[in-house]
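Ticket #4471: structure export looks truncated?
Reporter: QA, pipeline team
Priority: medium

Steps to reproduce: submit the single chain below to the structure queue and open the exported record.
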Amino acid sequence: MKTQQIADRFNELAQAGLFEEILLELFSSDAKSIEPAHAPFQSVQGLDNIIAKGKQFHDLIEEMHGSYTNTPIVAGNFFACTMGMDVSLKGLGRQKFDEVAVYEVKDGKIISEQFFF
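Actual output as written to the record:
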């Protein structure tokens, strides 16, 4: 798949809330996930580690109040979208998160994701 096709499929799955399916279908097995230095989670490499990091975050959620993922924009082998959520986290109360996510595509798979917030 080309970058635009991956971005379109990403958006289709994101709008349905199927984020694990995004990982399983679109990500390379050795993809990396890059977090900002100030993030509560560390950067990881490998699909299993990315899935485990997502599970750690979702285990902190007491209640989901809302979320969004905007339509990706594509440039070359990259696509980016803004996304966010309004959640109540265990021990932290209600929090709102907004971020820009940038994805790199190579050989028909996402090889990296990087978050900016």
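Status: closed, not a bug. The export was complete when the record was re-opened. Leaving a note from the reviewer for reference: Helices lie at 3-15, 19-26, 47-59.
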